[in-house]
Amino acid sequence: MDEPVKRNYQAVRRAESARRTRRAIVAAATELFLRDGFGRTTVDAVARAAAVSRKTVFRSVGGKVELLKVAMDWAVTGDDEAGPLAARPEIAQLAGQADGAAILAEWAALTAAIDSRVAGLSLVLAEAAGLDPAAREQRVLARSQRFDGGTAFADLLATRGLLRADVSARHAADIVWLHSDPAIYHQLVVERDWTHEQFVGWLAGAVNTQLLK
Prior knowledge:
- This protein is an all-alpha fold.
- 79% of the residues lie in helices and 0% in strands.
- Helix 2 (43-50) packs across helix 3 (54-60), helix 4 packs antiparallel against helix 6 (100-129) and helix 6 crosses helix 9 (182-191).
- It has 2 domains: 1-62, Arc Repressor Mutant, subunit A, CATH 1.10.10; 81-211.
- It contains 10 helices and no strands.
- The N and C termini lie far apart (66 Å).
- It has helices at 3-40, 43-50, 54-60, 64-77, 89-95, 100-129, 133-159, 169-179, 182-191, 196-211.
């Protein structure tokens, strides 16, 4: 095997190994955060659960706040691939729908899928925000990013001429931001025993009534 090819092969294998390690660490941290909360979860516990050293946890991901941030980022997109949610095929599929009801149905299904993965971790982040200034900043950022997503969706509806005459794009963004809060999913599905499908139907209907002509 030529030396450059061999080096490239070895680099690929190292990268794959590092990615597997990172996934194991984040998966372990996610499980512990959801089970024990932010305060009781330690880096040492994450290291033990992932079968790696404490040093590896810090080198691969970081401390507790970084672990929670990465866990939430992956929960939003559903994987550890690079790139924002806005660049994913699901968003293009949503924007490609022909009418307002279909667009809202796609949005509700996508939002509920995200909420189902994020809701528990969002509660952990709320706890962490009361304990750690960096976590507090992360929570503010997460809420801001969710508002940016709501603004983009409201702008899509406004551009298509789908909003009610008495609803501005800014007002629509506020409504979308509110209804996409993972806490609502947790309250209805986890606490009140709604099915996921019931939540999707309610979400699409509620936002349709408030926003569309």
